[in-house]
Amino acid sequence: MTLSLASLRASQPVARLGQSHGYCFDGDLAHLNAEILCDESRLCGQLWALQLWTDEGIRIAELPLGQLAINGSGCHNISGSTTACPPASAGPHIISMLLVSKMPGEEPAIEDGASYPQPASFIQPRLQGTVCSGFDDGMIRFDIARIANPRPADNISGTLALELWALDQPYTGGAWSGTPVASLVLGTLAGEDAWLDCQYTVPAAPLPATGHLTLMLREWTPAGYLTRDYRSLARPSVSASATPAPAHDTVKEKPAKATVKETKPVATPSAANTVSVNKASAKELAAIKGISKPLAAAIVAARPYAKLEDVIRAKGMGQKLLEKLRAALTL
After folding, report:
1. pLDDT > 90 in the chain, percent
2. What is the CATH number of the domain that holds 240?
3. Residue 94, CA distances (Å) to 18, 21, 51, 249 in order
4. Same domain, 93 and 150
5. What are the two backbone dihedrals, phi and then psi, of residue 69, each rounded to the nearest 5 degrees?
6. Number of domains within the chain
7. pLDDT for 214-244, tens place per residue?
8. Measuring CA to CA, which residue among 205, 193, 191 is closest to residue 267?
9. Mode of pairing for the β-strands spanning 126-136 and 237-238
10. What is the value of pTM for the model shown?
11. From edge to edge, which strands make up the β-sheet containing 47-54?
């Protein structure tokens, strides 16, 4: 974003950032503040927002501001907090703040922006060391040298999960689209702790003929599952036989409750036992226990979905319900 700010800015902005502006992160919260100077004669119902982006072009936070009121001075001092979605990479990252306006029915316009020279890093659960995989008769095996939580000792992770996807494009840490292949819930991990020499064997859907295989380490947060780290994988080798993998070993055995209360999802089942949220009829969706006829109709109306988590935009589908139904659904 730092390289393209000049070309993306509006040539005659309605508003701009003043001398005072900044941000800070507190876990998965972003706190933003800005002085906004506007030409009040050109305010005509635009909706405004402050956004934070990384230099890789990943949006990590947006603070909606609504309309800017005419106050006679043209100066507005804004501050607020919003959910942050840090990129699936420790960094460091150069962060930019954008001032964005939007008229109904039009695309958002970047009015102004500023980049911050001090890089930002994010302390998140990580995949470390060697990561490899192998397929055998509808199962996939993951061998991971280390899964670590580098946060302080009292900062227990949310529920961690592994998800294998065949993506349409190489993953760079932001949003994605593709086909889910397999998933596994790992549990919570204390800060300054790690699982070593992890070996997991889980059921896998048929591997698509094309797609960029990407293993994601995901964490449950108040905003749903967020990708904390990832690895691009080569096409798995097929072994002659698969030996059931032992449970992972931990550096420290400290059973603890997750900091976020949630309903845990289950591993991705075979595609033959799931119903497509993008292709199934409302009748087929309503046949799933937990999906009412109105909800099935809402799922159909809100199509298409780039990833399964997007189904929460269907009226009546909340995050907790989606987690209960995840095992029965696919894209």
Report:
1. 47
2. 2.60.40
3. 20, 16, 14, 36
4. no
5. -75, 150
6. 3
7. 999 999 988 888 999 999 998 765 544 444 4
8. 205
9. parallel
10. 0.62
11. 59-66, 47-54, 93-102, 109-120
Q: Is the dihedral of CA 68, 73, 75, 78 positive or negative?
A: negative
| Listed residues 268, 293, 309: the one ending a domain | 268
Rounded CA separation 201/134 (Å):
9
β 59-66/329-330 pair status = unpaired
* Radius of gyration of the chain from its Cα atoms, rounded to whole angstroms: 22
Q: For all residues of the chain together, what is the average pLDDT? A: 83
Let me know: does 51 contact 60? Beta carbons within 8 Å: no
Place of tokens 């696919």: 330
Domain match, 34 and 146 both: no
Beta bridge partners of 50: 63, 99
Most confident range (mean pLDDT) of 80-84, 85-89, 247-251, 320-324 is 80-84
DSSP state of 69: P
> Residue 325 and residue 280: Cα distance in Å, rounded?
15
Distances (CA, A) of 42 to 46, 67, 99, 185: 10, 12, 16, 52
Longest pairwise C-alpha distance within the chain: 76
Token output for 255: 């059973």
Q: Is 9:98 a contact under the CB 8 Å cutoff?
A: no
